Amino acid sequence: xxxxxxxxxxxxxxxxxxxxxxxxxxxxxxxxxxxxxxxxxxxxxxxxxxxxxxxxxxxxxxxxxxxxxxxxxxxxxxxxxxxxxxxxxxxxxxxxxxxxxxxxxxxxxxxxxxxxxxxxxxxxxxxxxxxxxxxxxxxxxxxxxxxxxxxxxxxxxxxxxxxxxxxxxxxxxxxxxxxxxxxxxxxxxxxxxxxxxxxxxxxxxxxxxxxxxxxxxxxxxxxxxxxxxxxxxxxxxxxxxxxxxxxxxxxxxxxxxxxxxxxxxxxxxxxxxxxxxxxxxxxxxxxxxxxxx
Length: 293
What we know:
- The chain is about 25% helix and about 25% strand.
- By secondary structure, the chain is of the alpha+beta class.
- Helix 1 (about 30-45) packs parallel to helix 6 (about 265-275).
- The chain is globular, with a radius of gyration of 19 Å.
């Protein structure tokens, strides 16, 4: 069943609101849409101006899961889009600029993934990301140990890092940068990953070879490539429960003693935003961006 609602003067079609998307908790599509409306104020600044890829799971995480990079069929004409150059030619992608387009996109039931550059400056990265991915039996607890080392290493180069959960198993470190291409940021991120492996050989792997990962934390530097995207802050993930990629404090990272300490679900986020505001707000201030060494 589809209903039409008005969001900031736009007519937005919302469908199947009673459908259970997360079987482990009974969390419905209507609840997911409510979550996005609740966090829009802090999420939209991290989406605005950035081409969005959607990891769609319209029937929940146990159904078909697929990436959509091009503008989906049936996209309303009032949704902003932009042309993006790719190695295989140009493509047109969605820009989620306002509450109406956020709710339209949320109705697709998708994770939001964004590049480390903005549509108006595609040749210059404005963020660096390090994706800390634990290989079992390692968990986010080990990721936190690695994150603290990387925080200090970045600080030595004059770069302030901010953590968020991946919303799955690991941790993301983000920092604002300026004056560098995606290629240069990728090179620097790889240098950091290799340095972490040398400093913490018992804990870190910098290579993508899966056989090297059990019991260690893979520092994935590759998501800084111009074509790659990373889960946007505050996006819900396609998991058994409505886990969210959640900004966290360094105190929480330091104090993490078990994996459950850094698991946050959609129902947890409003209270965190009320308490902390947007912990990643410094990333939105170009004056706080750092030049790479």
